[in-house]
């Protein structure tokens, strides 16, 4: 690599910072990647320079490195002014203007532990303002890695130093569009560029998308390639309030953190550098307030994106609850984002086969958004290592589309153990029946849920549990029956294929729990959101668990019954009582009007999709991820036209 020295452009920006430091010391530190020996003054100088250059579109160090230096410095001198204000943009010659509203930076977390601590702080604040923890909801959005801006409807501003920014309305005049329906005045957001577009058309012209964001708002004439990207709609001002999001109870955020991070991380076609979590309750927000730098009710979760190349030592099969065999690659232990990684799950066996993954293969691992690392690409292929026998029961494995599966449904220990683990975990109202305990019980021949419930208090000790654990396990079985749970959750705990929580809830809105076992596929198909294939699979799956289900059900659980959707047939409107979400830009009317109309027809309109949503109506430019996520929840996805057809006779 060639030696780094500040060029003319750098120097003219640095000049504006009016620093009193020797630049060659900074250059030396960057070249040697040694920052420990910098004096505090030089370190602050480096931070200020890196920040200014980063915001002008020419970063000199990696984001992760900047963050690390900032963190180190905040330990040394927490009160330093640079750490207690928004890291400013370098404002060009043109005049600054006051922002309509203060724009802050975000606090950052790099681990799940830190997120947990932040949630503890939310809960403490909730308690102080007497808000029930049940009502503490958290909104999760992608943290767009663009150029922060604010739109008050007339002027578009840069964030500047958080109090004063620059008027960049010229970007709009140049044709920069506002996301979704182009409505102005939606407040804070980010100027972004489509990743696909960048990869296809601009990657050979610009080093990174940051160069382009700076170009979009440039005072001088815009680069013609950037202008073309603007004209083609690849560049957008994206107000945060329009962002793809998941809004969930905090306990769900804690329990499903990885999958939520993963979903949101992949929800938009823009560069992102983390995800944003924020509490939605206004009273909690007011109570928590802000520091000079960030809102206490909001936090960014970030991970180190750097990929590493790793050699595969072996590929090991693991049989899941459903019989699907997952390939797990064992790796030469390697450091990635501060953690040592020694194994990674490969998507499925077909990937092992087609990508040539086996001992000696070299893969590139990333932790892009994932707490769990994932395989980005296979760098060196080898003879793939496929599995022939189930690692648990030694049955010969069969291919089923992309997967190898163990066909032994009745007697495969891995399948039975994972089914038991799934049951207790899904109930979620008890403690103690994790993998270790289940494995022990299974090794003593306990293969069914009802058998576990039949264990007497004094019997647990015969399975080599200590007195205290035995008592606790016995108590927990009682607790699991006594603490109220929803009937849909109870049903989904049996792990029937296609009967996840959302579908269970939907079925139970129409039929009672025990009735379900006698439904035919024809009846299920009549309920919105069930296609024929899934209806048949559900009937089949229920048949398989029927005997076990009733044995367990008859033990007497404290089930709350899903309210029935009543009177549907007596009301003419096809939307009566339905929960509808609109997304994307509509072509035949504004979204606001459609929402009003739907309400008038008896629908409830929500902003985000949950398992309770009936219809997701999609306008233009809705990502497949969003659509699939909705489908996974059992939501019916309608195009704008399909939706209008549905209303055609009203
Ligand atoms: N490489 C470098 O030299 C260098 C220098 C300075 C800063 N940086 C990077 O920039 C980051 C700090 O910059 P910052 O203070 O501009 O940003 P930040 O990371 O503190 O985040 C705050 C900003 O996030 C934006 N944002 C994006 N998506 C959002 C969403 N969904 N909801 C709410 N806000 C959202 C907002 O514009 C807000 O102003 C650092 O983490 C660092 O990685 C890098
Ligand atoms: Zn098996």
UniProtKB/TrEMBL annotation:
**What InterPro entries does the annotation carry?**
BRCT_dom, BRCT_dom_sf, DNA_ligase, DNAligase_adenylation, DNAligase_N, NA-bd_OB-fold, NAD_DNA_ligase_OB, RuvA_2-like
Entry GO MF terms? ligase activity
Give the top-level enzyme category: ligase
| Alphabetical UniProt keywords | DNA damage, DNA repair, DNA replication, Ligase, Magnesium, Manganese, Metal-binding, NAD, Zinc
**Where along the chain is Zn(2+) bound?**
390, 393, 406, 412
**Which parts of the sequence bind NAD(+)?**
63-67, 105-106, 159, 190, 302
For activity, the cofactor(s) needed are: Mg(2+); Mn(2+)
Q: Where is the active site?
A: 143 (n6-amp-lysine intermediate)
The answer, when asked if Ribonucleoprotein is one of the entry's keywords, is: no
Q: What does this protein do?
A: DNA ligase that catalyzes the formation of phosphodiester linkages between 5'-phosphoryl and 3'-hydroxyl groups in double-stranded DNA using NAD as a coenzyme and as the energy source for the reaction. It is essential for DNA replication and repair of damaged DNA.
Query: Which protein, by its recorded name, is this?
Result: DNA ligase
This protein's species is Shewanella eurypsychrophilus
Q: What's the encoding gene here?
A: ligA
């Amino acid at each position: 690599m060639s030696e780094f020295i500040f060029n003319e452009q750098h120097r003219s920006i640095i000049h504006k910072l009016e620093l009193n430091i020797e630049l060659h010391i900074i250059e030396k530190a960057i070249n040697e990647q040694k920052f420990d020996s910098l004096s505090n003054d030089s370190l602050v100088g480096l931070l200020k320079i890196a920040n200014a250059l980063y915001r002008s579109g020419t970063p000199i160090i990696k984001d992760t490195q900047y963050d690390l230096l900032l963190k180190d410095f905040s330990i040394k001198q927490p009160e330093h002014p640079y750490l207690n204000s928004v890291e400013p943009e370098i404002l060009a010659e043109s005049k600054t203007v006051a922002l309509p509203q203060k724009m802050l930076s975000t606090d950052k977390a790099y681990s799940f532990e830190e997120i947990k601590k932040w949630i503890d702080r939310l809960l403490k604040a909730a308690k102080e303002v007497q808000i029930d923890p049940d009502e503490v909801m958290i909104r999760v959005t992608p943290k767009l890695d663009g150029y922060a801006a604010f739109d008050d409807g007339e002027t578009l501003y840069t964030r500047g130093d958080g109090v004063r920014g620059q008027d960049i309305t010229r970007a709009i005049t140049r044709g920069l569009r506002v996301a979704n329906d182009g409505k102005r005045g939606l407040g804070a957001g980010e100027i972004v560029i489509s990743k696909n577009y960048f990869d296809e058309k601009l990657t050979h012209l610009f080093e990174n998308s940051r160069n382009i964001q700076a170009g979009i708002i440039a005072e001088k004439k815009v680069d013609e390639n950037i202008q073309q990207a603007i004209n083609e709609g690849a560049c957008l001002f994206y107000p945060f309030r329009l962002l793809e999001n998941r809004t969930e109870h905090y306990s769900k955020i804690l329990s499903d953190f990885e999958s939520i991070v993963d979903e949101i991380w992949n929800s938009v076609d823009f560069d992102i550098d983390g995800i944003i979590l924020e509490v939605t309750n206004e009273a909690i927000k007011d109570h928590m307030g802000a520091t000079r730098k960030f809102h206490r009710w909001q936090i960014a979760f970030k991970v180190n994106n750097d990929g590493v190349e790793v050699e595969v030592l072996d590929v090991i099969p693991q049989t899941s609850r459903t019989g699907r065999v997952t390939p797990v690659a064992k790796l030469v232990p390697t450091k990635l984002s501060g953690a040592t990684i020694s194994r990674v799950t490969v998507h499925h066996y077909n990937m092992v086969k087609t990508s040539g993954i086996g001992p000696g293969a070299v893969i590139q691992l990333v932790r892009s958004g994932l707490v769990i690392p994932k395989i980005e690409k296979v760098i060196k292929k080898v003879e793939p290592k496929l599995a022939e026998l189930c690692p648990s029961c030694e049955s010969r494995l069969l291919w089923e589309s992309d997967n190898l599966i163990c066909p032994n449904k009745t007697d495969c220990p891995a399948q039975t153990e994972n089914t038991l683990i799934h049951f207790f975990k899904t109930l979620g109202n008890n403690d103690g029946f994790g993998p270790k305990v289940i494995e022990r019980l299974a090794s003593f021949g306990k293969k069914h849920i009802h058998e576990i419930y039949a264990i007497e208090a004094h019997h647990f000790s015969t399975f080599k549990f200590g007195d205290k654990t035995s008592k606790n396990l016995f108590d927990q079985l009682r607790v699991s029956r006594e603490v109220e749970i929803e009937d849909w959750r109870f049903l989904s705990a049996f792990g029937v294929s296609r009967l996840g929580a959302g579908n269970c809830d939907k079925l139970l809105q129409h039929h009672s729990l025990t009735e379900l076992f006698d439904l035919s596929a024809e009846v299920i198909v009549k309920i919105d959101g069930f296609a024929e294939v899934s209806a048949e699979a559900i009937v089949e799956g229920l048949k398989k668990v029927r005997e076990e289900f009733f044995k367990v059900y008859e033990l007497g659980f404290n089930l709350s019954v899903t309210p029935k959707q009543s009177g549907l047939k007596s009301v003419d409107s096809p939307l009566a009582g339905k929960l509808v979400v609109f997304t994307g830009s509509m072509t035949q009317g504004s979204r606001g009007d459609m929402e009003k109309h739907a309400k008038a027809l008896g629908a409830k309109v929500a902003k985000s999709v949950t398992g309770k949503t009936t219809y997701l109506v999609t306008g233009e430019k809705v990502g497949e991820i969003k659509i699939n996520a909705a489908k996974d929840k059992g939501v019916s996805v309608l195009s704008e036209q399909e939706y209008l057809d549905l209303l055609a006779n009203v």
